[in-house]
Design brief:
13 strands; 8-stranded mixed sheet; disordered C terminus
C-alpha cells in the first residue's frame, strides 16, 4: 500500500430538504458528523439525495472535495465566505492534502476500514446556484476545475474525521483526474483518449458508455473529435 499524507478533515451528511426560494427538494445542505460514520455501497449512513436520476447511486455514492479549494473560493466570492467552508459545496468528505491534480481516474483510497474508488468528477447543477443564490457559481466550477470527485464504495466500512486517506491502488497511473475534468468540461478528447476511456478501469460506466458511443460513430471520428 502506498500511503499519502492526505487526511479526512471532515465528514458531512444531510437529509432531503427544501432549497432556494421555490423549495426545491435537495440533499445539498449537509451538516458535520463528529464521530464514526458507516459507509455502505450507496453512501454514508444518514445521507440522502432527492433526485436519484442524476444524484446518488453506486457511482456517486460519496462526494469528496479538496479542503484547499475553499480559500480560493472565498477569495473569488467574498460575499459567500460564510458558506464557503467544509461541506459548503455539498461534499460528504472534505479532504486535506489532496486535490484533483494528485488523483488519477480509478484511484482506490483506503479511509478507515472502507475502500473507495474515484470513478468520476462532479458536474455542478442548478442546485449549486440555489444554495448560494448566485448563478455564477456553477459556471465558475466548470471554469476553474475545482469540481471534486465521486467515489464508488468497493468495501463498506467505518470512517471518521482525521482518518488517513491512503492510496491503496492506482490502475491508471498515466491518466489524471484533472485531465478527465478538462475533457468533460472542454470537450477536447483526442482519439487516443477516447479509446482509453472506453474501457478504463474504475471509470464510471456512464462515461465508458459515452466514449464507446463516440468511437462507434466512425463517420465523424477523427484524431481531434470532441468528447460527446
Amino acid at each position: 500500500m502506498i500511503v499519502t499524507p492526505a487526511r479526512l478533515l471532515a465528514i458531512q451528511t444531510g437529509p432531503v430538504a427544501p432549497l432556494g426560494p421555490d423549495g426545491v427538494p435537495s440533499g445539498f445542505v449537509k451538516s458535520p458528523r463528529r464521530g464514526p460514520v458507516r459507509v455502505g455501497l450507496l453512501g454514508l449512513e444518514g445521507d440522502a439525495q432527492a433526485d436519484l436520476r442524476v444524484h446518488g447511486g453506486p457511482e456517486k455514492a460519496v462526494y469528496g472535495y479538496a479542503a484547499s479549494h475553499y480559500p480560493e473560493w472565498r477569495a473569488e466570492f467574498p460575499e459567500h465566505a460564510a458558506l464557503l467552508i467544509g461541506g459548503g459545496v455539498g461534499e460528504n468528505l472534505t479532504i486535506a492534502g489532496m486535490d484533483e491534480s494528485d488523483i488519477n481516474v480509478g484511484d482506490i483510497h483506503a479511509i478507515g476500514s472502507a475502500l473507495l474508488q474515484v470513478c468520476q468528477i462532479r458536474q455542478p447543477c442548478f442546485k449549486f446556484a440555489l444554495r448560494f443564490g448566485d448563478s455564477r457559481l456553477p459556471r465558475a466550477m466548470v471554469r476553474n476545475g475545482r469540481s471534486g470527485w465521486y467515489y464508488r464504495v468497493l468495501e463498506p466500512g467505518v470512517i471518521q474525521p482525521d482518518d488517513a486517506v491512503a492510496l491503496h491502488d492506482r490502475p491508471n497511473p498515466d491518466f489524471g483526474l484533472a485531465r478527465f475534468a478538462a475533457i468533460v468540461y472542454r470537450n477536447n478528447a483526442t482519439l487516443a483518449e477516447l479509446e482509453r476511456l472506453a474501457d478504463m478501469a474504475g471509470l464510471a460506466s456512464q462515461w465508458q458508455a459515452r466514449t464507446r458511443k463516440a468511437l462507434g460513430d466512425t463517420a465523424q471520428l477523427n484524431p481531434n473529435r470532441e468528447f460527446p
